[in-house]
């Protein structure tokens, strides 16, 4: 049996807590158990993405083959008080590429299905779109300051538990909508504390998948005049795709350049590009999600935890 990916455990809280839940327990051939961080409502979707990706990575004998893409569907919301089971299916090992399918279940019910592809190093062309010109993170306000000043239990919770420092170029959406609107959003992110040196690219790419999920909704919220405090708003990830172009160092400031492409029929679609400080495009992601706000006397569930809508009728009405 292949062993789970080694996760560094020398960082400080709250980053250390994120690293701990990425450490999987092997329970059988290509089968792993995972745990969840404490959550306000449902399990955070980025956590399950990262855990599923690491489970797929653990099934590779050739550790030079790195994930270059994955496509995932969120099928149900997860319960943070229960463990997850991750089952990996080895679809293909070719001369240049490997493919894996990961099924994440909880209480014998599927909550996420992921297909991912891996490739080894290869010579060839190297070109990419340039990074947009924006202020550097050092010139922008940290979301941690905003959380600590919020007179709201979620703000206080995030001020203590948020593992990443987020700095928006446009107005942040934590307490109110952006009066200027627009479907473009840029922000910088990095961990509050480094994860350490000599860590395998598997972990860096998994952490990028972990953190990018938390900001994919914001371009759609911005263009529709909403914020995380919009009364009765419901938001849930439906499907998520990601492409890794080049090596990632999650310890560094990364620019997340996003655009909302569409909002209709209670769904949104956003696309995001990730750049290093010196302008190198390292990854991209697209996400479709459910976004509902109260209309015509109808109330949304008021839940904006990430993960598919629960099965109960009251949550899907």
TrEMBL record:
GO terms for biological process: acyl-CoA metabolic process; fatty acid catabolic process. Pfam families: 4HBT_3, 4HBT_3C. Keywords: Hydrolase. GO terms for molecular function: fatty acyl-CoA hydrolase activity. Residues 40-119 form the Acyl-CoA thioesterase-like N-terminal HotDog domain. SUPFAM superfamilies: Thioesterase/thiol ester dehydrase-isomerase (SSF54637). The keyword Ribonucleoprotein does not apply. It comes from the Bacteria. Residues 159-290 form the Acyl-CoA thioesterase-like C-terminal domain. Residues 293-317 are annotated as: Disordered. Belongs to the C/M/P thioester hydrolase family. This is Acyl-CoA thioesterase II. The lineage of its organism: Bacteria, Bacillati, Actinomycetota, Actinomycetes, Actinomycetales.
């Amino acid at each position: 049996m292949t062993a789970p990916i080694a996760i560094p455990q020398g960082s400080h809280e709250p980053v250390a807590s994120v690293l701990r839940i990425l450490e999987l327990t092997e329970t059988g051939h290509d089968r792993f158990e995972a745990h969840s961080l404490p959550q306000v409502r449902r399990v955070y979707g980025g956590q399950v993405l990262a855990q599923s990706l690491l489970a797929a990575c653990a099934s590779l004998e050739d550790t030079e083959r790195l994930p270059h893409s994955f496509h995932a569907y969120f099928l149900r919301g997860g319960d943070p008080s229960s463990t997850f089971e991750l089952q990996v299916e080895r679809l293909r090992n070719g001369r240049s590429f490997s493919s894996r399918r990961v099924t994440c279940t909880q209480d014998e019910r599927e909550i996420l299905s992921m297909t991912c592809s891996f490739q080894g190093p290869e010579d060839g062309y190297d070109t990419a779109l340039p990074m947009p010109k924006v202020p550097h993170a050092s010139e922008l306000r940290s979301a941690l300051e905003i959380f600590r000043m919020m007179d709201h239990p979620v703000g206080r919770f995030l001020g203590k538990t948020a593992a990443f420092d987020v700095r928006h170029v446009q107005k942040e959406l934590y307490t109110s909508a952006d009066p200027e609107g627009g479907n473009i959003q840029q922000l910088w992110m990095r961990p509050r504390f480094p994860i350490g040196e000599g860590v395998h690219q598997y972990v860096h790419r998994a952490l990028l998948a972990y953190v990018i999920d938390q900001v994919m909704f914001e371009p759609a919220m911005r263009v529709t005049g909403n914020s995380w405090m919009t009364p009765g708003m419901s938001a849930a990830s439906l499907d998520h795709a990601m492409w890794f172009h080049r090596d990632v160092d999650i310890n560094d400031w990364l620019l997340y350049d996003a655009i909302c492409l569409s909002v209709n029929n209670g769904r949104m679609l956003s696309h995001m590009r990730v750049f290093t400080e010196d302008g190198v495009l390292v990854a991209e992601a697209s996400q479709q999600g459910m976004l509902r706000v109260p209309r015509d006397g109808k109330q949304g569930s008021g839940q904006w935890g990430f993960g598919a809508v629960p099965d109960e009728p009251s949550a899907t009405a």
